[in-house]
Amino acid sequence: MAEIQYSLRTRAETLFRKLQDEITAALEILDGSEKFFQETWERPGGGGGQTRILKEGSVFEKAGVNFSAVHGDAPESTAENGITFFATGISLVLHPRSPKIPTVHANFRYFEQTNQHAWFGGGMDLTPYYLDEEDAFHFHRTIKTACDKHDPSYYPRFKKWCDEYFYIKHREETRGIGGIFFDNLSAPTVRELENIFAFVEDAAYSFLPAYVPIVEKHRDEHYTEDEKHWQLLRRGRYVEFNLVYDRGTRFGLETNGRTESILMSLPTVARWEYDAHPSPGSPEAKLEAVLKNPREWI
Amino acid sequence: MAEIQYSLRTRAETLFRKLQDEITAALEILDGSEKFFQETWERPGGGGGQTRILKEGSVFEKAGVNFSAVHGDAPESTAENGITFFATGISLVLHPRSPKIPTVHANFRYFEQTNQHAWFGGGMDLTPYYLDEEDAFHFHRTIKTACDKHDPSYYPRFKKWCDEYFYIKHREETRGIGGIFFDNLSAPTVRELENIFAFVEDAAYSFLPAYVPIVEKHRDEHYTEDEKHWQLLRRGRYVEFNLVYDRGTRFGLETNGRTESILMSLPTVARWEYDAHPSPGSPEAKLEAVLKNPREWI
User: Fold this and answer.
1) Strand residue runs (E) in chain A
2) Which end of chain B offers a freer environment for a tag, N or C, measured as fewer CB atoms within 10 Å?
3) A266 — contact with chain B (CB < 8 Å)?
4) A271 vs B271: CB contact, 8 Å cut-off?
């Protein structure tokens, strides 16, 4: 078992490094005006990461694509058991300037603990400001195709998990129109764990084809001040989800994670107004209805 | 004991209602352009409140002054013990438009549980965007005077408690330059509980004299776009504190509180930029230094 765990560990880290390179390269081409800058950081207990940020671009107001690979003593480690952990992952949040282009989040990660087990987690989800059913269908279908190659139960399970995870309880609505989410995905045999890795690889590589066509479709659309205003209110909800509920964010902040890398997920600007509601029948109300009743897109 | 508890309950509710009226009246005069509107709400389990909001005023971008008095079965109530609770309080957050005027928060509350105990909580704290030592001194001295009338240990204890409570751990800084904070302030005898009520009354009435002179002093000062930009970044930190740490906010959101009344504390607009730091020696850096090392103002 030990050799295989090391092998997966190396391959997972390699995959996430490659993904960071490919995704940031594609996003720079898509943006056309700004480039990512990189900050390399080290974790005092072992390992580190690369945070890449593109800001004030023509398409993206703020785009963050983080890679990390950290290791060290597990919190439950003692002199006797000497338990260590290793975690590697990629995490990205893209906030476009235009309210016609959805915000997107994706995250894939691998975790292992000595003498215990190894697992994968991840997913991606779309947060539009205006509902475009064709976009929703395209995003979900692209992900479903990647899932179905590996296990027909994955997409329905992980789609449901996503709707449940990205739920803003105090607003009684989801953060966006979903995608997939999975965590602690493990297996009793090496062969099955290899299969999970193959799935994670395909799911991660489906990110660009799932999202980029949506950006290309809407990037030249006109938008009004009112539409921008609605986007900022919705971004307030994004902040609420991330700071109140997101387990990754809260865990990171509580365990002295790298604050700037964790909070790179927040939008540049967000608004809160007392009791603001879209007028009935408006495009804004149409989006809200879907957030209150998550739909099956396929 | 029972009669006295009822009496305190009625007097506490009356105090907080009166305070809401006096404070909103004073703030309308101070703002000079906009008025508060009121929403009255009922709590399904018993009681309700009045949320008053003033928005887009000439001085205040957003000002919320909430009153509530709620009662019902305590969470630990069973058919056998029939434990009930009563809670009343006033809570306010004022976000001025100008970065030269500090944001302020105040909250006073009374809580009692049948056959158990009664206690008070509250405090007020100032969140400037630029440090004015005279303001800090005035704010703290006004509060200290109210505290000292009742117990010389109150101000030093509650000032320290405030610095500790309004601490943004992941930023290693306080939310603002403090004030006082106290919770679960109770007493074994009726007489002592009455003394605590008298203290809460004086502390609550010190709010307007502690804050209003600061507004009057800075209301006509000019400010630049850069100063407004810094205010929005600091408001991001305000949002971080409220959503990640504030126990009242988190408890309210988790227990199906009235979301709009709870989140009225958030500023209209907040900004997040990756790794933004004020330049050394700037007025912005001077504020940051005080947030990292809370000072004794008196």
Assistant:
1) 37-42, 47-55, 60-73, 84-96, 103-113, 118-127, 167-168, 173-174, 179-185, 269-271
2) N
3) yes
4) no
- List the domain boundaries for chain A: 2-292
**What are the tens digits of pLDDT across the range A159-211?**
999 999 999 999 999 999 999 999 999 998 888 999 999 999 999 999 999 99
**B192 exposure class (CB count in 10 Å sphere: 0-12, 13-18, 19+):** exposed
Closest CA relative to residue A259, chosen from B230, B173, B171, B241: B171
Measure B189 CA to nearest chain A CA, in Å. 39
Instruction: Tell if the CB–CB gap between A269 and B170 is shorter than 8 Å.
Output: no
B233's enclosing H/E stretch is helix B225-240
pLDDT digits over A132-164, tens only?
Answer: 999 999 999 999 999 999 999 999 999 999 999
Cα-to-chain-centroid distance, residue B228: 23
With beta carbons under 8 A apart, name residues in chain B contacting A53.
Answer: 274
Q: Which residues of B touch A238 (CB under 8 A)?
A: none
Spell out where A151-292 has E strands. Answer: 167-168, 173-174, 179-185, 269-271
Which option is the CATH number for B2-268+281-291: 3.40.1500.10, 1.20.120.1200, 1.10.10.10, 3.90.550.10? 3.40.1500.10
- DSSP designation for B278: P
Tell me, yes or no, if B105 is annotated catalytic.
yes
Q: Does A276 touch chain B (CB under 8 A)?
A: no
Q: Which residue in B has a C-alpha nearest to residue A64's C-alpha?
A: B274
Question: Quick one: B2 exposed, middle or buried, by C-beta within 10 A (0-12, 13-18, 19+)?
Answer: exposed
The one catalytic residue in B105, B138, B140, B218 is B105
This complex has an ipTM of: 0.93
Q: Which fold would CATH assign to domain A2-292?
A: oxygen-dependent coproporphyrinogen oxidase (3.40.1500)
